[in-house]
Design a protein that fits this description.
mainly alpha, Helicase, Ruva Protein, domain 3, 61% helix
Length: 161
Amino acid sequence: MHKTPPFLSILAVLLLVILLAPVPTAAQGNEPTDDEVNAIAKQLYCPVCENIPLDVCPTQACRQWRETIREKLAAGWSEEQIKQYFVEQYGASVLATPPAKGINLLVYILPPAAFLAGAFILLRTLRSWRQATIQAEPVVPVQPEDPYIARLEKELRRRDG
């Protein structure tokens, strides 16, 4: 009888264990996490509930939409493709941030423009006030014509000085 060396037996057992070990499939390795799903879901609003982000909406419909996001991520879709899918299905109102085109462009232009216009007006007003105080003539005390006021002024000057 032929006896095999012990290291070959150990090597054969290790090789067998490695070959029989479960191999992760593409679906298992590509499963998106809840954080990845919620990162996209918080950029979308529930089409059914008003002003509730998709990641916190408790309705059954939102759970299904989050599952749709999970399936699209597992299929290799990008964030933009998934958002575009929801826009095509439910309209641009599902986006948390409106696209910067058309009438929505005003949302991005008007606030900074209003701020700059207000800053310009404030600056001009402050400059005009400063120039008005510099150019103002010195105030000359008016001599009172009323004898009582003249007497009161005289008394006050006497007390102070």
